[in-house]
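Hey,
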Amino acid sequence: MPKPSKYGPLKPIYQLTFNLSQSSASKCSLAYSGREDGIGAQIHSLFSLHAYAKLRGMTVLPQALSNIAHNDQEDPDWDDKWNRFFNLPRSRTTPQEPYIKRIKLERLFFPTSGTCYVTQKAHTITDLFPESYRAVMPELRKQYDQAPIEKTHFLKDDRISVAIHLRLGDVANHSARSSRIDRAVQQISTIRKYLEQKGENFEILVLSQGSPANFTPLVDLGAQLHLNEDLFKTFHTLVCADILCMAKSSLSYAAALLNQKTVIYEPFWHPKLPNWLNDANQLPQ
């Protein structure tokens, strides 16, 4: 389970501050300062700003992502492709507010009316108030669906789709971030039994990186492997799956926020949303 936040005891004070400052906050905005990281971390940071803004009654200025990592093919249009994928602006802009201030949002503060607060993320607060995502994700999913490109996935339309995201290939030196094959075996076995008992036609897809030899126990359970595949297509598969089993990954977390069906959470440093399941055993009967 996620470690309790050191800011946890301050949650009632944060809530009181938010309630008392709604009037001035409604005349303020947030702008994403940007970061150098992968697409999962970047888009999750942006989603967190939207959730925080909803808590405080602020607005979020549209902003492009930049310096997106893992551009292994050195594609000069890498950032632009991701901005189009998420239906974001195509370039970064300087906020045009009368007063701009950089801030870390874990600070307790009363906003100054008319200020644009520039910041990187709001995870400290949204981890205390994970339900705040539920107020903003339907609109962000609508924005995602209206992107000016045709998105594709690995799913078949005539069956229940189960997407298992496993993070193995990029965390060799961070075992705490790595997915466990034995947990995936347990989840797949439980989901298979559940869907078979309901008489459903289904497919189980494993999306990850690495060698097929590392996933033999999952193939033995009937899983289809999609390893080292196109990241855009992989992400959209996670978003569209009927049942998504997350990894300990910001990419997984961001896809789960956009997924409007069933999400099975894997504990890591960001907490689950109230409607996510802790385990496949919690699937509704």
